[in-house]
Design goal:
Helices cover 41% and strands 20% of the residues. The protein is an alpha/beta fold.
Length: 436
Amino acid sequence: MQQASGSLAVLSPLCLLQAARASARNLRLVLRHTESGAVVVTVFRGGNVTMVFSPGDGRSVGELLLNAGLLERERVEALLRQRVGAGPSLQRFLLERTSLSYVDVQRFLDFQARQRLLDALVWEDGYFQMAEYEGGEEVGFDLALPSFESLYWRAAARRADLPRYLEALPGAPARTLVRRRRGALRPLDAWEREVFATIERPVLLPQLVARLLVDDDLVLGAVLRMAERRQLVLEPVAQVAPAPTPIVPCELKALMREVGGVLRPGTGGKPADIWVLVLSAQTQTAPRLVAAMAGGPSVTWGSESSGSPAGVARGLVAVEGGGRLCFLAARPDALSRGALEGILGRCDAVALVREGDGAEERQQLGQLRERVLLAAGGWRPVLLGIDIGAALREWDHFPDAVIGLPELGLLPPGKLVESFLGGLVAAAKSRAQLAS
């Protein structure tokens, strides 16, 4: 088998994971959820799971270690900077650069993979791609996971209980503080006693989950039961309200729906989130374009501890009644092959952006294009070219469509988004014509 793809409505995630395990081969399985746009990439070596990716899901190992109190934020940020372009696997990197033991690192990698698989195992709509895979760092070790069958039943129970628990909280988990009630008796249940003992000092719910390394629904259920018995207190933590998400004029609703229709024909015309990976040869060009479309003064490179992959900047544009346009502007030198594969699994299209007309920039864009196609495997993403500050220029390899934009700052965000959406429609239709 070189490659296979299809619908999750026909072959469930559990069946696909079981098949990959039974094959005893080196494979990469990409699962994508239609409604949320979430993606989970599972890498197998000889049928054993070696890594589970889900870029941008906010459950990085760095964040888990930070919440567990094993590393300080400054140390995590420093490790992320050192990690850029580093060759060793994440497991080996943490063992070499921190005082963490092998057992500690393995536990956190196992828990991260478990949580991502619990999400994916209950997906009933979406798409999959399975292909032969000979990777680098991400196949260097094994994860110690339960059987896929037991994970599936755990995932089904989590899906049934988690929404009810989240609704009962006074705020989002990351903004809910848990503390012991003064004079409260210790619970009699062994599991609840463990939760109670972990809360020596007030903690946020994600910190409690990371310190216990137990599924979030089980932790929330225990906390809510003890709060009802007045053994624990749940308090919402105030936060500064973020700037409102830019709302693009309603006139763009039809254009956004058309983009969704050509990029995701299975959505039936319903509003959907459209994900676009934005790349540029010049490091700051891509995030500047994303910032201009999102209506913000700037977009900064993210880090795993902030919920974004290292070297990835985010931008979000909401179209009134018509879904959202979600941008990931990636710094090319900060992406390993595994990370790029995971990001591409989430994205509907790729935009290649340039500001100059030099031969070196054209060559670098060509190299970026080849990296994207290599990481995408048998699936070729829709490619949109963007020339900033000039009319159409020469390309070494023409994308599916090319648009020209004036210097950034000369057009309001709505007009930039309108041009961008028009380019996506043209690129997707051009791809469809070539395919037919």
